[in-house]
Amino acid sequence: MKLLVILLFSGLITGCRGNSSHNLPPKLLLVSFDGFRADYLQNYEFPHLRNFIKEGVLVEHVENVFITKTFPNHYSIVTGLYEESHGIVANSMYDVITKKHFSDFDDKDPFWWNEAVPIWVTNQLQENRSSAAAMWPGTDVPIHNTTPSYFMNYSSSVSFEERLNNITMWLMNSNPPVTFATLYWEEPDASGHKYGPEDKENMYRVLKEVDDLIGELVHKLKVLGLWEDLNVIITSDHGMTQCSKDKLINLDLCIDHSSYTLVDLTPVAAILPKINTTEVYNKLKICNPHMNVYLKEDIPARFHYQHNDRIQPIILVADEGWTIVLNKSLPKLGDHGYDNSLSSMHPFLAAHGPAFHKGYKHSTINSVDIYPMMCHILGLKPHPNNGTFGHTKCLLVDQWCINLPEAIGIVIGALLVLTTLTCLIIIMQNRLSVPRPFSRLQLQEDDDDPLIE
């Protein structure tokens, strides 16, 4: 009975919401605040974000993909793929066959992005729909010969206000309508690198600014009449951890730099040997106890970081808080890229809109689970991916979901009901089968004499 009530109630809510939007196609805005570590929510005040969460859902921890850097994780969010599958395996890459290089400043070649199909391309190719983007990584690249109908070439000097103004204008005034849009902002990542996440004074100031931007976002959507019908997801690509000049791994003390090419550096370094791979590996293996050294074929399976030609023959993974350097200087006080099982590397996810419950909290999902959820909201057929839609069902109003405590409660309740009914049946049967009390025999005239006088 409880299950029927839940299903009926969910159906009524979904039907009412569908009618209120006059059957318009669903719209989704995906927002990333780079480097927003999950536990910032517990350690700092976020009045605007808290109000957003109060009216929507919160996922306290999102386990992202390895390596926990900006380009790879942003592409995993919008493709649902591990890095070895979508091909953006680092912020700096080298392809040995084509001799091409990829970096933060040279990322516009579709060659690097075409191993996957991001959600804005899928949405863009639907009839009567279009996509828009304000500087989300990859949106200014013609992936599979397709860009969003509306996008901004990346420039960190463009203000959040200008990015937001463009996005809201495109959401309101485009034909065909923009049904999927992305918005990216560089903070608190930039300040996390500069000050380190343990610098409470500076991070308080920066995170207050981020919260004010969230307040500005919500206010703008309300003023323009977008708030009630637009689904909004706020998340991030990774967290941040504190680094120290006392935790340096100096490769120059272990191996001659002329014997290898450093494709990507710290805290996951990609090594392309110029001489015998085994010789380079053996030297690096004993370099520092706070650094794991893997041949490509021995990278742990849990990283899902092995089966791609862009992953170099040797990978170095520093312990949390340790920095791989070529000299003795510390480049930044905060960093990310470390093992994705570390809580300091995890971002969060908050969402609001007609597709989401109100006031619901969930403990954890994987970043690759976000993609199938977004496809479901938009009514898109997802490309093959590593995500699990079932992990996000509890966030959505049109999905039936029972969490473990509720499931246990229902099972126990059902057992109690069955036990009670069984006991009642047994009692009733016993009552019916009890013999009537003894009564004196009434002898008929033709009966034999009684045996007992």
TrEMBL record:
Q: Membrane topology type, per the record?
A: Single-pass type I membrane protein
Major subcellular location class: membrane
One GO-annotated biological process of the protein: blood coagulation
List the Pfam families. Answer: Phosphodiest
Q: Which domain of life is it from?
A: Eukaryota
As for subcellular location, the record says: Cell membrane
Q: Which cofactors must be present for this protein to function?
A: Zn(2+)
Q: From which residue to which does the signal peptide run?
A: 1-18
Any GO molecular function: metal ion binding
The keyword Cell wall biogenesis/degradation is annotated on this UniProt entry? no
Cellular component, GO, one term: plasma membrane
List where the protein spans the membrane: 407-427
Sorted keywords for this record are:
Blood coagulation, Cell membrane, Disulfide bond, Glycoprotein, Hemostasis, Hydrolase, Membrane, Metal-binding, Signal, Transmembrane, Transmembrane helix, Zinc
From the UniProt record, list the reaction(s) this protein catalyses: P(1),P(3)-bis(5'-adenosyl) triphosphate + H2O = AMP + ADP + 2 H(+)
Enzyme Commission designation:
3.6.1.29
Describe the function of this protein. Hydrolyzes extracellular Ap3A into AMP and ADP, and Ap4A into AMP and ATP. Ap3A and Ap4A are diadenosine polyphosphates thought to induce proliferation of vascular smooth muscle cells. Acts as a procoagulant, mediating platelet aggregation at the site of nascent thrombus via release of ADP from Ap3A and activation of ADP receptors.
Family label: Belongs to the nucleotide pyrophosphatase/phosphodiesterase family.
**Name of the protein described by the UniProt record:** Bis(5'-adenosyl)-triphosphatase ENPP4
The gene designation is ENPP4
